Structure formats: C-alpha cells, structure tokens
Amino acid sequence: MVLLLTRDDVISVLQMKDCINVLEKAFTELAEGSAVLPLRIGIKPPEGLSLYMPAYLPGMNALACKVVTVYKNNPTKHNMPTTIGKVLLQDSETGNVISIMDGGYLTAVRTGAVSGLATKYLAREEEGQVAGIFGAGVQAKMQLWGVSEARNISKAIVFDKFPEASEKFAAEMEEKLGIPIEVARSADDMLQADIICTATSSPDPIFDGSKVKEGAHINGIGSHTPNARELDTTIVKRSMFIADSKDGCLSEAGDIMIPIQNGELTEDHIHAELGEIVTGRKTGRTSKEQITLFKSNGLAIQDAATAKLVYDMAKEKGIGKEIDI
What we know:
Blueprint: E1 2-5, H1 7-13, H2 16-32, E2 41-43, E3 49-57, E4 62-70, H3 74-78, E5 83-90, E6 97-102, H4 104-122, E7 129-134, H5 138-150, E8 153-159, H6 163-177, E9 181-183, E10 195-198, E11 217-220, H7 233-238, E12 239-243, H8 246-252, H9 254-261, E13 270-273, H10 274-278, E14 291-295, H11 300-317, E15 321-323
Parallel strand pairs: 1-6, 7-8, 7-10, 8-9, 10-11, 11-14, 12-13, 12-14
Antiparallel strand pairs: 1-15, 2-3, 3-4, 4-5, 5-6
Helix pairs in contact: 2-4, 2-11, 4-5, 4-11, 8-9
C-alpha cells in the first residue's frame, strides 16, 4: 500500500520544531559519512526543467527522492504553478515506495528548519534578539518561523521591494508567532538586526555588507546559481562562512563563487559544513563580536529526513489515503 499525502495533509502534521530536530540528525549523518547524497540530476524538456534529488539516511531509515519541475509557461498555458514538487518515500528494507507526498510545503518548512538549525549553533544566545527578514514570500515566512524556534526573538523587521507584501507578511506572522513585526522602508533599516535572513530572488547583492553590525548571524537562502548572489563580497569576507555542503557552495552558490572567481577569496574561506559544527568536529562562533554566515543551497537529505518525519506522523494520526498500486 502507498500512502498519498496532499499539501493539506503535510501541513496538518509538519511542525518547524520537529523538522529542526530531524535535520539535526540528518546533518549528523552527513558529517559522520553514513548519509548517501548523490548529485542532483537535471533534465531539460522543451518546456522547462526537471530535477531529481535522491538521498538515503540509514540511521533514520529515510530513503527518498524529490522530483521538482520548473515550467515557466504553466500559469498561462495550464493554470498550474511554475514550480511543482513531489516526494517519493521508500521502505529502506524492501525498496518499495510507501508514500507519495506533496513537496511544496515540505520544501518550504525544511528550508526554514535548516536556517533554524544553523541559528541554533551559530547565533549569539542572548534573549530578546531582533530578526531581520529580506523578502516577504513563503520562504521568508519559514525563515522567521525557523529562527524563532532557535532563539528568543523579541521583534522582527521585514523588507521587500513590494511594500504591500511586507504589510501582509507582518500581519500574518505577528498572528502566527505572537511577536511584533515592523515593516522597513529600506535595506539599511535591517542591518542592525541580530539575525538576518535573506530569502529573495535578487541576482545582485541586496545590502551593503559593511553596515552589518558586529555579532550578527546571517542565513543566506535565496540565491542558488553560480551567477547570482544576495550577499556582497564585503559581508562574505567579514563573516565566518558555514556551508550546508562545501561542494554545493563551490558549484552552485554565487555568493561565494563570484568572490573566488574574482580573486578576492579562496575556497579556504569556507570554514566548515553545518554538519561539522553540529557534531563538534569544527568550532562555530568564537566571540560575541564575530559575524557568522550560513549559506544554504538545499540538500536532498533535508527532504528525505522531513519526508520520513511526515510519513511517520501521518501514519500515527491516521492521515492520508492508502492505495494499492
């Protein structure tokens, strides 16, 4: 039997705190060398792009593959979203597919959760910190949710190039998290925040890295191609740089690739991978004044771990539809 889980099913069982906890285990497995994480496979049909992201976490019995498609003409030609994702979860003992679930909300939560995990290990531990969120879309909301689980946030500030999006973000997230949220009028208004998250689609740096205050922690999640970057060379240089995957950052993340290509940094500027910090193999923050920067490209181990969590909780609660294929 295969358990089918819709977006609403996934939403009903998946909580940020639980996701952060399973990602901590997943990154531990990655650092310890037990995780199997093949390269992402891409196919380009005439109308779009199809990506296949497999992973296996033996310690968690999580074997899965996420299929993501990006078809730009979907909204106008087919009344469908541009980006669509599904996750196939397998029984790691038999190989049988035991669940097919919507991957959209799952991806959003696991992306916020990895920033929450990085914040847990890298941000200062003072109470009542301020979070600054660049962007006001779904991913930005998950970023604030994630860091709010990791640290005591007294206030958040949001900035988006569309002010109405920021206003909507503030109203929704104030109700969800119970903290005041201010709408910033410029990027500079954000740079005294203690924890900064960048979740935009900008191909160019979105703030002046020289203005970020000492001691800040940054989660960069928006740019994920070699020619795009949300973060300028200045802030990358000023920061202890932590990657979700060093290989991933050196092949996909313009934030670090561009300064390296320009001869302004070397690959050695990547201090560690997140799993190495989680397991204590490498040290994280060393002072209150240090700026820490986590760069997230997104790894299939996050999808596999989260899909297993969703499946287990859905089975426990009797959610979803069982079918015989």
